[in-house]
Amino acid sequence: MLEAKFYDTYYFCNVVKSVLYHSESYLGVLNDFYGDGRIYYRLSTFNKYSILHEFIEFIIHDVYYDQSSEAALEKKQKIQENYQDIPIALSLLRPSTLPIELALKHHNMPHQSFEDFLDKQSKKFIECNIDDIYEFIHKLRETGVFHELVEHISKEVFHVLFQNRDLMKNFNTLMANALEYESKQERPSEIKKIFSRTGVLKRAAIPQWARRAVFFRDRGRCVLCNKDLSGQINLENKENYDHIVPLAKHGLNDISNIQLLCKECNQHEKRAGEAVTSDNYQSWYTY
Ligand SMILES: [Zn+2]
Questions:
Q1: How far is the CA of 247 from the centre of ligand 1 (A)?
Q2: How many whole angstroms from 268 Cα to the centroid of ligand 1?
Q3: 226: CA distance to ligand 1 center in Å?
Q4: For residue 104, with 0-12 CB atoms within 10 Å meaning exposed, 13-18 middle and 19 or more buried, which class applies?
């Protein structure tokens, strides 16, 4: 079970989507994720905490650091200054509470407050600077609570995004391009064994949990021709677990890269070897 709080979940979904669909505007950010050989250390073979989870986690980190800007801090310090003599207003506005604290609070994750952190160093919020915030976040990371929060939000964001096959295709195309680009360089020796001689990832068995997840997401139907593959209506239709971006095109062995196809579509539609999916979903009821 996933205890979903939907706190900022859709906001993060949107950020992830923006980065993936406008990747040319985020090259610097993306490079920090996969550039200069980093992609090799992100690779895993059908981990439940998938490569997409890792990517979402990376984006959430970036957002939390981004929210801690000089300008945002100054604005909050102004509020603190203006309402100094009106404690009721201050307790409502809570300018010294950071966004990350609000998120931790919402998830019932005990942590030291930023004010308390400053107090221990005999500093006042009004005179603190951006480095104090970074140091505070660093401290949250050390205690593990920051990671716990980011991992939880990442699972919720994955839960929502996984339904969107076009986004899965987009993510996997981006990763495949990065992997292809890096394939011109020498690979770290510890990961060489997961690659085939042609330089793409070796085929790995798709675990049962991944097959079940994909089967249920795609409602037991071929995503291209809508044929029923449940075996309850037609025993001859066999399900095929297809890599959205084929392994031969530097696709990943990751649950985000798998979809349900019938045997015929798997053979015909994919002959060109290009990434293919569809925008068709079974709705909750017909309109
Ligand atoms: Zn089909």
A1: 20
A2: 9
A3: 6
A4: buried
Rounded CA separation 71/74 (Å): 5
Asked if residue 46 is part of any domain, the answer here is yes
The CA 196 to ligand 1 mean position distance, Å, reads: 29
C-alpha of residue 148 to centroid of ligand 1, in Å: 41
| Centre of ligand 1 from the C-alpha of residue 253, in Å | 22
Domain assignment of residue 192, given as a range: 187-278
Domain annotation covers residue 95: yes
- pLDDT tens, position by position, 199-248: 899 999 999 999 999 999 999 999 999 999 987 777 777 889 999 999 99
Neighbours of ion ligand 1 (CB under 5 A): 222, 224-225, 227, 262, 265
Among 161, 178, 204, identify where a domain stops: 161
pTM reported for the whole predicted model: 0.92
Residue 192 burial (10 A CB sphere; 0-12, 13-18, 19+): exposed
Last residue of a domain, one of 93, 127, 161: 161
Tell me how far the alpha carbon of residue 237 lies from the centroid of ligand 1, in angstroms: 9
Q: Let me know whether 155 and 31 are in one domain.
A: yes
Contact 128, 82 (CB under 8 A): no
User: Could you count the other beta carbons within 10 Å of the beta carbon of residue 265?
Assistant: 20
What DSSP state is assigned to residue 107? Answer: T
